[in-house]
Prior knowledge:
alpha+beta, Immunoglobulin-like
Amino acid sequence: MRRFTAIITALVTLSVSVMLSLQGVSALSVSLTSDEAVRAGEMVTVTLSLNGATDAIGVEGRISYNPTHLSYENTRQLLISPWIMELDDTESGTITFKAYSNDEYHQRPLTAAAQILTVSFMVRAPIGTGIRINAQDIVLSYNSPREPSSAGAAAFTAAVTSALSDNANLQSLELAVGQLSPAFSPYAVSYNTTVPFDVEQLEIHCIAEDPDAQIAIDNPMLIANGVVIAKITVTAPSGVRRTYTIAAWRERDPNYVYDENNRLADIILDGGILSPRFNPDIDEYVVWLPFEHEMVDITAVTESELAGWRVSGNGRLIEGAVTPIQIIVKAESGDERSYTIYMNRAARGTGKPIPQEDEPEPADEPEDEDEPEILPIKSRGVPGVVLALTLILSLAGGGTVGFFYGMRRSEWNKKMSELTQRVKALLK
């Protein structure tokens, strides 16, 4: 009985060992897959994977395909360093590869499930054609003394279908309230509309030309007396996108009260000083400028943020003249108010503005010169009448010079009168 039990135990152990060995062998396999549909005129990429490749330090094989159906594009290695891959794609319809661990100690062998590479093709076959991509002669190598093993072969097959639609057009676009301008066309993407104040958001109705296209609408809330942009984005099955926009103007609240403030808070000049000092209630100012100041930059600050302003007449200033410049302030209500600045630019060489003719500005007087001492006539031995006439003529000539040097005529007449009195005193 004991001998029988021992025999049965041995047979069971042998059976289990054989089954495990067979499972180990059958676990090694290769697959060729793709997550993409095969569409005419588009790319298709297949992935070569190994199952049960534990401890392998090398793998080689070949990929074959029909070059009349598929056009080879590229191969991409999926194994990371220190693995390297050698390719040979010189033969039409065949790609030969060899990948191995470039590590002396082979410390990064393959794991049980490993992705080896991807291969991409352009589909040239017409719609309905069946294509086939084969992975053949896949052999794995190991450290000695383990012998190389074959992973067999695999194939990817599919029928060519039509390419995905690129149509991202709208078939129709309408608003529940408001009219589109211009009228809708699938090829026009920008529109405008105006809606009453009581419409707080657009109600948009649209249909895509391609029933498989996706539509996304970005429809923000409208603002009174302002523009808001609504967007309709159509995504075609191929991924192509087209965006339609609607610029919507919502009318102002009919009970809104317009701001009537058209006053300035300040006037800022880049040269010169306002006279008098700025006051919102004063509408006219004067600025004196030297000859070198040909232009003045003017900045106005309004009391109301809703008011606007503009400058009129601010060009090149005329030398030796007055140039009026206006600042026009427009309230939100439309009421306007003007501030005027009279720019007085000096003439060349004076350094200051020329005074008006009817009210001449006194020029700088020349330094006073010592008046000649008037000696008693009798001591000079010259007839008194001759000296008196000579002095008067001399003063008359000097008066002309003094007048041209900026002396007022009234001042000159006064001085002449004083000198005449002194001459008369001498002649007595």
